Amino acid sequence: MNPKTPEPQAPLWRNGWYRFAHQHKSPNFGPRPEGARTDLVVVHSISLPPGEYGGNHVLALFGNTLDWSAHPYFESIRGLQVSAHFYIRRQGELWQFVSADDRAWHAGASHYRGRSNCNDDSIGIELEGLEGQPFEPEQYDTLVSLLAALKPAYPILHVAGHEHIAPGRKHDPGAGFNWQAVQRGTGWDARCFPAAVQI
């Protein structure tokens, strides 16, 4: 009796889409500039309304389907068209909105490692949370796993917060984010992280 041939394992990435992420495709993206080297990961925090967790408002925002009348806060962001590549919920659940091969709209006016327009050559990861507040262990677990999967697929050299690429304009993920946990979890050199962060 011939042993059964094991089925080939599905690749981690297919056209920039990660196998272990739920897909919720956003229309808010575009091509990266020719020659762009995707070597930066930008960590953000988001919750809609701010400080409220567990709903689907973030998915709706990135999909351009948010009901602006559903909460008074939404009037202040009415018409906003943004996206990130990934979104990690409080329990660690991972969503993907834009192929990592494409340019998502997460950074805005920005400058880091001697380059401007960080959307051009970065991957944006949103954590469900409020800037300055703590994040959940499950979120760090998912983030570390995602970074480990990104590293062999893209030439990642830097991980920074939105606050580091747009200082003064943005403040997320803020003081509640544990950079040491990410550095320990990935085992990456401290030089991969912002100089302002004590690793």
Furnish the topology, listing elements before pairings:
Layout: E1 13-14, E2 17-18, E3 22-23, E4 29-30, E5 40-46, H1 57-62, E6 86-88, E7 94-96, E8 103-104, E9 111-112, E10 115-116, E11 122-128, H2 137-153, E12 158-161, H3 162-165, H4 179-186
Parallel strand pairs: 3-7, 5-11, 5-12, 6-11
Antiparallel strand pairs: 1-2, 4-8, 6-7, 9-10
Helix pairs in contact: 2-4
Summarize the structure.
This protein has 199 residues and is α/β, with parallel strands linked by helices.
Describe it.
With 199 residues, this protein is of the alpha/beta class. The protein has one domain (22-190): Lysozyme-like (3-Layer(aba) Sandwich), CATH 3.40.80.10. It is 18% helix and 19% strand. It is built from 4 helices and 12 strands, in the order βββββαββββββαβαα. It has helices at residues 57-62, 137-153, 162-165, 179-186, and strands spanning 13-14, 17-18, 22-23, 29-30, 40-46, 86-88, 94-96, 103-104, 111-112, 115-116, 122-128, 158-161. The strands form 4 sheets. A 6-stranded mixed beta sheet has the order 3-7-6-11-5-12. A hairpin with a 2-residue loop joins β1 and β2. α2 (137-153) crosses α4. The longest helix is centred in the last third of the chain and has 17 residues, at 137-153.
Q: What number is the mean pLDDT?
A: 95
Helical amount: 10-25%
Number of separate strands: 12
The profile of the biggest β sheet is:
6 strands, mixed
CATH topology grouping: Lysozyme-like
CATH homologous superfamily (4th level) name: Peptidoglycan recognition protein-like
From the alpha carbons, calculate the radius of gyration and give it in angstroms: 17 Å
The low-confidence runs, each spanning 5 or more residues with pLDDT under 50, are none
- In the sheet with the most strands, the strands line up as 3-7-6-11-5-12
Give me the secondary-structure category.
alpha/beta
What overall geometry do the principal axes of the alpha carbons give?
globular
In CATH, the architecture is 3-Layer(aba) Sandwich
CATH class: Alpha Beta
- In whole angstroms, how far apart are the ends? 56 Å
**SS summary, helix count:** 4
Strand content: 15-25%
Assembly state (oligomeric): single chain
Number of domains: 1
Helix-strand string: EEEEEHEEEEEEHEHH
